Amino acid sequence: MQSAPAIQKLLDELERLPGVGPKSAQRMAYWILNSDRATALRLAQAIVEVKDTVHFCSRCFNYAEDDLCEICRSTSRNQQLLCVVSEPRDIPPIERTAVFQGVYHVLGGALSPMDGIGPDDLRIPQLMQRLGSEDIREVVLATNPNVEGETTAAYLARLIKPLGIKVTRLASGLPVGGDLEFADEVTLGRALEARRVL
Amino acid sequence: MQSAPAIQKLLDELERLPGVGPKSAQRMAYWILNSDRATALRLAQAIVEVKDTVHFCSRCFNYAEDDLCEICRSTSRNQQLLCVVSEPRDIPPIERTAVFQGVYHVLGGALSPMDGIGPDDLRIPQLMQRLGSEDIREVVLATNPNVEGETTAAYLARLIKPLGIKVTRLASGLPVGGDLEFADEVTLGRALEARRVL
């Protein structure tokens, strides 16, 4: 493609975004070229601003603009209930359920011996320190239901249980609205094992 | 979602992009948050730069950084062969075929009485002026094969033919690699009408 260099540079940068291939990068680039200057600059400004103002919450390591994130600053959250997640991006889906009213701790990843990620590469020391200094009664392990997430959950459970704190894990089972026919064996097996009396 | 305001602002701006819904905006926002500052700022800078440096080619109305676009500046193109397209985004797919060696004219849309877009809203006067002043032997009408594109092509053909210039239209037919079984009736009808002797 014989593009102006500035367009080519924009295409290159857009293609770095997750889920954006050459075709969608081109659609976005033409949208930016077609849009009025103010709209395009608002996008550029939002990118700059997020890098300038957002950092990690000093307590839970969620994204925050101030020293503490909005959840840690809130006075309506149950401070005795702590949910451990791998990444900040895992918090919004949990918040959307409106079921969890406690606070969070973000590990910044999951244990993965294959990738050389051990306990010291995650914010596990900071978690243990919080469990020592804060009055936490229950830790919900909400790492992903995959190999790394399960390994991390098992490791943390062994570490936290001796402190006399209740440790729970997100339930595995059939997704609501899902189809039994299309469930994989592992999920269906877990759903059977965890069957409830009605 | 209880996001920091800067993250929410970025999500709002990303969602304006074509083909980007709430989920992909969130993936992109987290990618930007996770990436190092330099990478994120390169994207912001590319957006600013494209708005600052790219405008329309004064001859063909393709996107250009200088007065003329790269195609109009090229000395290796056939200046007697002119391809008329609706939008600048229609040029890269034609260039990628490497079949067309002429120059372009971008109309900036297509005739659409329904949307109130008439000949004066497109760069048709500029096209007629080029046909009067440049030595053009053939005009290839490469507007889209839909109602507006066909209307525009028919209108331009009526306007240009009296000047004694050869007017051609992109062929309609079955897409190469396509399946006859899944071809729509109109396309298959066109392919039959335009059948070639072997």
From TrEMBL, chains A, B:
GO molecular function: DNA binding; zinc ion binding
Claim: DNA damage is one of the keywords in the record: yes
Record-linked SMART domains: TOPRIM (SM00493)
SUPFAM superfamilies named in the record: Recombination protein RecR
Residues annotated as domain Toprim: 80-175
Pfam families, per database record: RecR_C, RecR_HhH, RecR_ZnF, Toprim_4
Zinc finger feature spans (C4-type): 57-72
Name of the molecule in the record: Recombination protein RecR
UniProt organism field: Senegalimassilia anaerobia
